[in-house]
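Sequence in, structure out. Go.
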Amino acid sequence: MVLCMSVLGLALAAMAFGAATRPERAAQQPAAQPQLAKPHARFFVEPVAQPRIPIDALLAQIENHVRLEHAAAESFLEYPTSALLHSKTSSPFVN
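Output:
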């Protein structure tokens, strides 16, 4: 009984797979509607040209951020409080 049900299930799965992967026939598509061209894929917005920033300026900003974070960590280690733990630093970067 289990073998018969397994074979029946396998046959149904094979028919469903065959129907899902079968290519559509041209006769089934209406000839009156022309195929529309697919638009180019866009991911949220059009690409915008970003201004180029020199690497030295970026490195200076990162070094300043690291220096500010280090100073905040040192002040917390000297006098740890929950207010210092959850306060924001004066760095322009979001941490």
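Check: The chain is about 50% helix and 0% strand. The chain has a mean pLDDT of 79.
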